[in-house]
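Deviation from plan, reported transparently: nicotinamide-adenine-dinucleotide complex.
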Amino acid sequence: MENEKNEVIFADNYVTGSKENLEKWIGHPRFELIRHDVREPLLIEVDRIYHLVCPASPIFYKYNPVKTIQTNVIGTLSMSGVILLTSTSEVYVDPLIHPQPESYWGNVNPIGVRSCYDEGKASVQHGIEIRIARIFNTYGPRMNIDVGRVGSNFIPQALRGDALTIQKPGTQTRSFCYLSTWWKEMILALSTLVTQVGSQWWNWLRRLRRL
Ligand SMILES: NC(=O)c1ccc[n+]([C@@H]2O[C@H](COP(=O)([O-])OP(=O)(O)OC[C@H]3O[C@@H](n4cnc5c(N)ncnc54)[C@H](O)[C@@H]3O)[C@@H](O)[C@H]2O)c1
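Because the crystal trials were delayed, the predicted structure below was used instead.
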């Protein structure tokens, strides 16, 4: 928004976010903030939608699994236009192949405690122009800390001088991406022309690894 002439309408119900995170933009003439839950319809005309709502931390998305899956499914169904959906590595859940190519469908437990998030992220409406970016462990300023994600645990633990919590067996590998890089990629993903209308499945893992 800083470098362009775009107007931004930001809708959030603050379940894991907060108004304080947006302080910099509140009052800006090209920024509008709406308290809104995407499970309810919102009738506004826009050119592009960055669909980023959904608690990303396991602690939060498991807290109310029904709301989580509703946010992903109903929230996505109520959008139309050119949409960027931030999907997640969780659609592969416990993948048997590394790294995951787009031809790999994952190893999902449909009755597991995480399925509200995993299956919600796998639900996409057909017949709309959508780009799906699979993002992995993005971290940056103002993120919720100590909420069970590797970045949000490690960084504050390291800053406090605490021991880092390593989950068993300790041999896991992860890709990380800093927020400013992530935004450039998301804007690029939504700006890139696609010839096919429907679901576009893009795996950004290798690209983010190169950055
Ligand atoms: N951070 C990552 O590494 C990562 C990885 C994979 C996918 N994602 C996806 O990217 C998006 C953003 O992730 P994040 O890390 O910023 O998560 P976050 O939990 O910090 O932010 C999610 C935002 O969505 C809002 N929200 C949740 N449910 C809502 C609803 N029903 N209506 C309106 N607003 C609602 C929250 O208040 C919050 O501001 C999510 O869709 C997440 O699944 C993130």
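Residues 8-141+175-210 form a domain with the Rossmann fold fold (CATH 3.40.50.720). We consider this an acceptable substitute for the interim report.
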